[in-house]
């Protein structure tokens, strides 16, 4: 196996990182509603593993701790830390862990610039270093890298294969002057990637990330991909998702074998107060120790998606999480979480 190695999400974790919403984020007008969801999510994760709750300042920390205590979250599995933040998308500003030759973890601190400068992200870009300097990650080293890479943009099987949508990495607003070949070389060197699968198609309406892979296609095992499917020709996303499906059919694993493909349904379109479509989907699930947390939207397809994922993860509990508050800001369950590999949290 190549050194270093990027673990799959289903491998053992030491915890999950959440960066909580506060009054200075875009969540201000629905803060009470979204904080209830965060508290529910933190308490749910804490049934299975520790939760690192990143708070904006001391006053925010007191508010978060009170809310977690009120909901009855397991105090032995709660960690609270301070780091100023612009927003809450921990998947994209959180650290990415790799396994080193010694077997120990190394955290990589890639740059985050608000998905190509769409949103202010200066505080978010400093969160990992702030936490590391406070000793939140124990003795795990943190290495800063100049490449802009969001955690939601990459998906791995844990065996050196990586899946990504090209435009979310090869982007003059994210990584000016870097070709796909140059980025691929960085991924090989820093993440241990030996087999790269690049998608040119795939998008769901309302996605500010330009097509993060965690909204579209996920590894469920080294030989299995589940993906977002659209079967309605009148849907605005139909053509892109159909083209993506054809790309997935053509993909081969490192041994030259086709992948087992499992389609996920799409919920009925959801819209914001201005009539803009929101990027709701089921591929944005989170795998943790012993469970898979599934975003739901009070849609008849929720149950079908949960049943499909139960079949793909038969040894894990399937836990639905109502993500309608989250989707109003353009993201869902996986987008607000970042798993921390075994050995990171003390």
TrEMBL record:
Keyword match Hydrolase: yes
SUPFAM superfamilies: Pentein (SSF55909)
Keyword tags: Hydrolase
GO molecular-function term, one example from the UniProt record: agmatine deiminase activity
Annotated TM spans: none
Pfam families (alphabetical): PAD_porph
Source organism, top-level taxon: Bacteria
Gene Ontology biological process terms in this record: putrescine biosynthetic process
Protein name stated in the entry: Agmatine deiminase
Organism listed in the record: Thiocapsa imhoffii
